[in-house]
Design brief:
Blueprint lengths: L3 E12 L5 E10 L5 E8 L2 E9 H7 L9 E7 L4 E11 L5 E9 H14 L9 H11 L1
Antiparallel strand pairs: 1-2, 1-7, 2-3, 3-4, 5-6, 6-7
Length: 141
């Protein structure tokens, strides 16, 4: 059985008050890190940003607002188009505000990706090798 899922989506990026523009979102899921989904955003062949997101939070965000802190998600419906709005908050600016980027992803495509991850590792069946994790933490200190 494959322990890795990958999907590339065209998403819409909105930074500040600007219009949306398309970027690629490369989503990946690895059973070795069963709680996380890695998203790499790229444009013109360059990596714009890389985020590790909680798989359960992504799933929940398709149905209701979730998140506090640096990442927030909520469903958005225009009547015909179903999207997931992802807000990524960055570093503080000198004026006290924070950098913010908003990504809009087509919800059905994201739901398909998440369904494929659940076929690899079902919710509640995630396992973390705690000994390996502790070795990494201790080695890093």
């Amino acid at each position: 059985m494959n322990s890795f899922v990958h999907k590339t989506l065209v998403v819409q990026l909105q930074a500040g008050a600007s219009d949306r523009f398309p970027v690629l979102a490369h989503l990946s899921y690895d059973a070795a890190d069963p709680f996380a989904v890695t998203v790499v955003f790229s444009h013109d062949g360059r990596v714009v940003a890389r985020w590790r997101l909680d798989r359960e939070m992504l799933t929940d965000g398709l149905g209701r607002p979730v998140g506090v802190g640096d990442v927030r998600m909520r469903p958005v419906s225009t009547g015909v188009w179903e999207e997931l709005r992802l807000e990524f908050l960055g570093d503080a600016r000198p004026d006290g505000g924070r950098q913010c980027a908003v990504v809009f992803a087509w919800a059905p495509a994201l739901a398909t990706f998440l369904r494929e991850t659940r076929e690899v590792v079902a919710p509640g069946r995630e396992e973390v090798r705690i000994d390996d994790f502790l070795q990494e933490v201790i080695a890093g200190s």
